[in-house]
Amino acid sequence: MADPTRPQRNTLFVETAQILAQDSYPGQQYVLRVHAPRCAARARPGSFAHLQCDPGLPMRRPLSIMRVDARAGWVEFLYKDVGTGTRLLATHKPGESLSMIGPIGVPFSADRARPRTLLIGGGVGIPPMVFLADALRTDTHWRPFVIMGSEVPFPFAPRPSRYLVPGLPPEVIAAMPLLEDWNIPSRLASLQGYPGTFNGYITELARHWLDTLDETARSEVAVFACGPHPMLAATARLAADYGLPCQVSLEEFMACAVGGCAGCAVRINTPQGPAMKRVCVDGPVFDARCVAW
Questions:
Q1: Rounded (5°) CA angle 93-135-37
Q2: Which residues partner with 30 through β-bridges?
Q3: Domains delineated in the chain
């Protein structure tokens, strides 16, 4: 019988994931697709996997899931080469296999009373926002708007959006093609001067959009975010300024990623007082108001 106090018991799987594709992008970024049907069938937006980067490297690496196809059984990740593990992972080719544990973590949860979902993803925080957008597009009740930021070239070729978003500077037209194909409006932000992007912080662009909404429309907004800690802290302040609910997916270094070592613990404010919570299994998604920034 499942233990209700341990919701992830019996939901984590160790699979031998076969690499289907490994595509490289500027900025030492990669999109990895693997065949892992048990993970694909159970992953939810906000889930991640703990992936073996190389048979010769004992420690796994946590990677956020960007897309899944439960029928075809594949899982897709976006990652950046930033150290030994990811550098080794980038050397592997289609047809090779790696061990994977997943899906792991508490996912995002959308409230149907707030159908205007503002998704904010920065850098390697982009994948969970793509996953969440993919899930929301299956129901016309939701009205997602996605803002992405990066200080290295985006891991896709931006194109001008066909969607007019009131309140945004007219020159800010760059969008993610995949989201355009899904009929989801998006905009890009960067301090690097990329064509069509907003020249500023991602939260500044979000303020532009929120300021165009009247009180009724704003009462329908919920914020979801993933990215570097400073960006998430700024997003939490943004949501608080407008009185909006906000869920954030935290990023921390992990050893076991299944709750055993507590190496990824962060301070969370609970009704009983401050507590240390594990990002891997108590999160990675938390209410932004509860995080001790």
A1: 40
A2: 24, 79
A3: 13-104 (2.40.30.10), 116-251 (3.40.50.80), 252-293 (2.10.240)
The per-residue pLDDT for range 8-49, each reduced to its tens digit, is 555 688 999 999 999 999 999 999 999 999 999 999 999 999
- Indicate the pTM of the whole model: 0.94
Instruction: List, in sequence order, every beta strand (DSSP E) within the chain.
Output: 13-25, 29-35, 48-51, 61-69, 74-80, 97-104, 116-122, 145-149, 159-160, 174-175, 186-190, 198-199, 221-226, 246-249, 265-270, 273-278, 285-287
Give the closest residue to 248 by CA, choosing from 228, 264, 263, 271. Answer: 228
DSSP conformation class of 206: H
Q: What is the pLDDT of residues 214-227, one digit of tens each?
A: 999 999 999 999 99
DSSP notation for 160-199 = E-SS--TTS-TT--EE-HHHHHTT--EEEEESS--TTSEE
Indicate the SS3 state at residue 207: helix
